Amino acid sequence: MEAVCGRGDAPCEVAALAAALHALHLYCAALAAALIICCAPKPPAWYGRVSWRGQNARGVASLALLAVWALGAAAAVLRASVRVSLAAALLAPAGGLAAAALHVALWSRRAAAPLLYLALYHLLAAAAAAARIYQHLHAGLDVQAIDLHIQALSFIFASIVAIVDCICFYDEVTKSFYKNCKPSAAPTQSVHNVAYEHCDAHFYSKITFFWLNPLLYRGYETPLESEDLGELPEKERSYKHYHKFNKIYKDQVLSKDELKEKQSLFRCYIRMVWPNFYLAGILKLFSDVMGLVPPLGLAVIIDYIAAPPAPPPAEPVTVSEFLNNGYVMLLILTLALIAQALLSQNSTHLVTVEGTRLKTALQGMIYDKCMRLAPWAASMNDVDEESPLLSATQSAQAQLGLLTNLVSQDTYNIMSCVWICHYTWAIPLKVSAILYLLYTKLGVSAIIGTVASIVLITPLQFYIGKKISDNSKEIAKCSDHRISKMTEILQGINVIKLYVWEDLFNEKILNLRELELKHLNKDTIHWNLLTFTTQASTILVTFITFTAYVFMHTAEGLTAVNVFAGLALFNQLTVPLLILPVTVLMIIQAMVSSKRIKEFLDLPESNNVQEDEDSDDAGNQKQKTNVFNEAFIDHKPEDEDSFTETDKIDNQAVNNLDNDNDSDDEIPSPTIDDTQPLVKFQNALFSWGIRNDNSQIEVDDLDIPPGKLIMVVGATGSGKSSLLSAILGEMYLERGSVTWNGARSTWYAGQPPWLLEGSVRHNIVLGGSWCRRRYARVLRAAGLRPDLQLLPGMYLLQGRATGLRPDLQLLPGMYGQVQRNLTLLS
């Protein structure tokens, strides 16, 4: 030590120890990372993924530590005469890179033991930084010394990394002790079949999107197929987001808020996208701050080039000298641009993911509402051209076009609003900061030029945005009309082909398409004008600012520093001025779409008879608990046998029917009071639409007892099917009350049979419990066994077996203990 620093030079000895620490770590970490990557086997599939705590905090701290050490190396280069300090400063970033490489290797190979080594290294680095801080303070350095700030930041970030590594090492040791390094349960999903690995990737791979490179390489070599995308992670599946949003929506609907009519879906949106949406806002804020560094650094670089070089002083590097050095500022600009790119892309990724999740959840809500929607729901809206929903006078095909737009366009508008929502506060904040910086460089002339440009261009942009909004509404109407006509044509394509009407309907569709293309062409012209005005605003504000500066000041005051810095700041105004009108437009469209979706979700459902709050009998209505149709979950039948094996079992069950014991293998029947009626009507009046005097049916007093066969006889159009619809709750209750027996179940067999493609057994059991004897008795009671034996696959239901479909529709009700249920046969 004396040979390097001499006797009694404590600061030099501390720097020498720090240099030795980083050099030794550089060698050991690089060698260990190479050995782990090359020699350590990959973990087995059952091991699962790494779940180390605090990796985001560690990653941020480690990147910040690398940046601080890089700035420390730049500060040491300015005083290159101090050899030991220069060596320590240059070895520190290299050691940090080696530590990052080793941590990535440990993550990929699931090796936890070297975490203790990384923790000790960062702990010793923090101790070296603390020792150097003590030496600087003992030497009497003030806060103007840049090395004092660098060592303080190094101590903070190195301590954070060391603490997180110690916690992770403790967790791994505890897990190994209690679980013998093997998870107790196998993973529910194949690790290698998941392409979206963002949530489980290493922090460095996550922020740089390096985890996406294998998929990009595969797409570069061969065209990507759907199999290459793999499965979605379990947490990203659509039913997960649907259930989350559905719970949030129901909590808001059931909340005891007096102003329920003013409730908005935006509250649900905020709760749905939290907290990643707010994290994206923080990243957006820091990204905009990093974006202001290049214009300011450009002025420093120009000043440094213009000023004559001066010999470096003997005292330590100060903050002012450090920031005014052109080469240091070039390094700062490089780090700032890298940080801006990382922050901006990760912010965009977060809002994109949350917007997509919200869109998926809304599509699930709309789909589920379509399954529950009452036939008389459309009549709840008044006939108004400005209404987001269609009125009852419009056709079913037009309603289908509306639902198509709700699922596609309206959910897309809300997703786009989530994507650009942060611009609503980021644009004013960024413009204000740029105006202040322009004022410091060019004085009042910058404010004059900017304000003049905003006054001239912004109203024109908002006018164009209003035209785009109005034109978008016309496009939506034309799209609804075209989709409805196309649906009608596809439904009647056989008749059109039979009568050779292809040219006639083709002309009608082309006319509708021409009208839609006319509005689309207008939309393209409006967007081009909006882009042109934005690009012209930059030139206009620059011209007005420099002209005003020449008239208000002397021409000699317009130096190269002010000109280039002003141009760089003016260029920063281009993106906010371009995005501002688009942001306002998208938010307006999202508000309109949210209103449309909310009104649709507020429509009554068929299994809930509309209650009249003014009626005294409204409280007497009883509802059956509705079972949610989990249409979004990948359903797999309990029985995995093939159709051939199922046929053998079915045939054997019927043949051995006489040899079976009736007491065995029966579905248990609950004890139910048979004296209570299944359905009870009291002075009830139903209609197919609210405030609709036509197509009404009145039931004064009717009790439907259990265990009885009741036949409704009448002429065509007398209301037989309407009575069944009233029992099912598909008609609007104008007055009176309807009481259902909640302990009973209901089975409905309509005129058009509804069956699943598959085996007869699947259509009878419908996912319920399999009872062999009951299944055989149902087939014998219906007398369908001889008919089923005539099928090619015996029990395989095919499209040609149309004559059996109405009879098969009755069997699920018989299988489900029809003597205790209400069965409606239309």
TrEMBL record:
Domain spans labelled ABC transmembrane type-1:
279-589
Fetch the InterPro entries from UniProt. Answer: ABC1_TM_dom (IPR011527), ABC1_TM_sf (IPR036640), ABC_transporter-like_ATP-bd (IPR003439), ABC_transporter_C-like (IPR050173), P-loop_NTPase (IPR027417)
Native species? Plutella xylostella
- What's the protein called, per UniProt? (diamondback moth) hypothetical protein
GO MF terms here are: ABC-type transporter activity; ATP binding; ATP hydrolysis activity
Pfam families tied to this protein? ABC_membrane, ABC_tran
Q: Is Coiled coil among the key words of this record?
A: no
Give the UniProt entry's GO cellular component terms: membrane
Give the CDD domains listed for this entry.
ABC_6TM_SUR1_D1_like (cd18591)
Tagged with keyword Nucleotide-binding: yes
Where are its TM segments located?
16-39, 60-78, 84-108, 115-134, 146-170, 277-306, 326-343, 417-438, 444-464, 527-551, 563-588
- In residue numbers, the region (Disordered) covers 639-674
Swiss-Prot/TrEMBL keywords = ATP-binding, Membrane, Nucleotide-binding, Transmembrane, Transmembrane helix, Transport
